[in-house]
């Protein structure tokens, strides 16, 4: 009994020791990462291990070599043991500075052992949340080893790009009925809404829901699927509705709620129609291109009068070739100010060429927001089309060149048309206007007509380029040759302005209006006189700024240009 008394404490100690050893022998990770089983008792090395981190790589989901907010990415690296002994209990880690928010990189599994001469490729996938800011992320790739044979840490620098949310809103609204005039009870009224994404990221799963007062009924449905809107993209939603005899209010408020996939970046509005006022007649809506984000169009009509009812002709001019350029979005390429309505100017002018002047669509090159390379190629191509026109012996080719955008003049008094990817500080990287005139005239075209809704005084539509000088330099006037006529939007020391209410450039609006009124039959003399008179007057009235169009005629065309017509003679 006495022996048992002495044995019991020893037995208890032994059992406890065995339990502790068993507990220490197998430890299972309970973290959310891959379950790892390892032996905490690190074997003693018989030879030194030498770990190295090599072959670091980076990849992101959209392939722009940056970490964008709301994007996943991977960092890969190779762990090499170049020593003579085995490395044990290796714990690789990628460390993000605590001052950088929005980056999460889960830890990889621990490595039980890496034999001498062996390598192991490790890939860690991370994610950037909306908290990420613009900047540079420096991560440290390192590892620990059970016996202290740690590799030298490696650094990796990656650019980060903050989240640019979409911004979905109603840019314009317009009420109309079938025949125009004051709407009657029971008559269908159509609310047209221009929904636009003015943000810098695509908006997905965009929807619109209309809410009506009592005694107002939808013509069809109240929920509309808009879909995905790219940055700057617009979509038109038409919502018909009607009243009954019980509705006695003088106006009808229609509320639209917008939503998108994030649930935070869409803003609805309430549009109100006055039932005592005449409405516009319902017409097909003409929206050309995406509006510049800097242009606030709320409260304006959805289209200009010159955009609709374009005169039609059956006459064809297969010998007429046209290059039409509308450079509007400079801010996306060169940090210059945009040119409001330039895209619409070019697009609608193209429509007048095809529908009113009989130019074949395949004979027109339309460029929107053109780079230098695109403009140079297009000038060469349109000249080449005129040079190779098969029937030029019977009917000589003609060329029309239209440009809306920024212009500048260098210190040698040479005027330049500015592509969207050339900043105003590098004026000679633009397209020299004299080179354009000369190339088009050398094509052998019987007529070259140029329309420039631009100026060379350092800006367009009242917006100044960065390089605009306090002292204006007037461009040369004697640089055109061949049978060439140039209609310029303004004198050399003036700016070309917009006509905001008409959503066109001032010069282009009256150019289109004269083509519409005359059905393309106005002579160049009539067109020139009209442009000078109307633009000069309305620019002062609308913009409080002087703008007088200018007409430049080459010596060869002096005796004949007055009777030329865009629709042909």
UniProtKB/TrEMBL annotation:
Occurrences of domain Peptidase C14 caspase (ranges): 321-551
Gene Ontology terms describing biological process: proteolysis
A Pfam family hit: Peptidase_C14
Keyword Signal applies: yes
Signal sequence, renumbered to the chain: 1-24
Gene3D superfamilies from the UniProt entry: 3.40.50.1460, Immunoglobulins
Superkingdom, taxonomy of origin: Bacteria
GO MF annotations in UniProt: cysteine-type endopeptidase activity
Record keywords, A-Z: Signal
UniProt protein name: Uncharacterized protein containing caspase domain
């Amino acid at each position: 009994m006495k022996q048992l008394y002495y044995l019991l404490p020893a037995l208890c100690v032994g059992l406890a020791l065995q339990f502790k050893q068993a507990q220490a022998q197998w430890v299972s990770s309970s973290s959310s990462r891959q379950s790892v089983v390892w032996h905490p008792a690190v074997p003693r090395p018989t030879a030194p291990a030498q770990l190295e981190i090599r072959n670091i790589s980076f990849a992101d989901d959209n392939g722009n070599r940056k970490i964008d907010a709301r994007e996943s990415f991977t960092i890969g690296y190779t762990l090499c043991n170049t020593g003579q002994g085995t490395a044990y209990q290796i714990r690789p880690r990628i460390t993000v500075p605590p001052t950088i928010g929005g980056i999460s990189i889960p830890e990889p599994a621990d490595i039980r052992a890496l034999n001498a001469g062996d390598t192991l490729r490790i890939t860690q996938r991370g994610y950037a949340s909306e908290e990420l800011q613009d900047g540079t992320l420096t991560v440290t790739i390192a590892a620990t080893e059970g016996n202290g044979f740690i590799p030298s840490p490696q650094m990796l620098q990656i650019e980060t790009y903050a989240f640019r949310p979409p911004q979905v809103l109603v840019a314009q609204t317009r009420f109309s009925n079938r025949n125009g005039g004051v709407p009657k009870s029971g008559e269908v009224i159509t609310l047209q809404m221009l929904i636009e994404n003015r943000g810098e990221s695509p908006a997905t799963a965009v929807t619109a829901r209309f809410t009506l007062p009592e005694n107002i009924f939808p013509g069809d449905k109240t929920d509309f699927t808009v879909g995905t809107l790219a940055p700057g993209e617009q979509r038109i939603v038409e919502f018909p509705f009607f009243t009954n005899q019980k509705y006695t209010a003088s106006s009808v408020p229609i509320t639209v709620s917008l939503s998108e996939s994030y649930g935070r970046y869409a803003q609805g509005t309430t549009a109100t129609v006055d039932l005592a006022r005449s409405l516009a007649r319902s017409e097909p809506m003409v929206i050309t291109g995406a509006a510049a984000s800097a242009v606030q169009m709320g409260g304006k009509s959805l289209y200009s009068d010159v955009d609709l009812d374009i005169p039609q002709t059956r006459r064809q001019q297969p010998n007429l070739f046209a290059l039409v350029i509308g450079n509007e979005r400079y801010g996306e390429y060169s940090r210059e100010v945009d040119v409001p309505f330039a895209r619409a100017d070019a697009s609608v002018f193209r429509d007048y060429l095809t529908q009113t002047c009989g130019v074949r669509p395949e004979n027109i090159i339309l460029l929107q927001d053109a780079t230098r390379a695109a403009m140079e190629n297009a000038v060469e191509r349109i000249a080449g089309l005129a040079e190779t026109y098969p029937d030029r012996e019977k009917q000589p080719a003609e060329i029309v060149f239209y440009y809306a955008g920024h212009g500048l003049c260098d210190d040698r008094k040479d005027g330049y048309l500015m592509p969207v990817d050339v900043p105003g500080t590098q004026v000679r990287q633009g397209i020299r206007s004299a080179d354009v005139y000369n190339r088009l005239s050398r094509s052998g075209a019987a007529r070259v007509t140029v329309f420039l809704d631009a100026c060379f005084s350092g800006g367009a539509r009242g917006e100044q380029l960065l390089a605009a000088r306090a002292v204006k330099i007037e461009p040369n006037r004697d640089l055109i040759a061949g049978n060439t006529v140039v209609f310029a939007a303004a004198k050399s020391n003036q700016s070309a302005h917009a006509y905001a209410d008409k959503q066109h450039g001032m010069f282009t609006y009256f150019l289109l209006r004269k083509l519409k009124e005359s059905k393309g039959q106005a002579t160049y003399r009539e067109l020139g006189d009209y442009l000078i008179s109307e633009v000069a007057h309305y620019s002062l009235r609308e913009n409080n700024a002087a703008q007088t169009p200018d007409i430049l005629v080459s010596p060869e065309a002096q005796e004949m240009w007055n009777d030329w017509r865009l629709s042909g003679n």
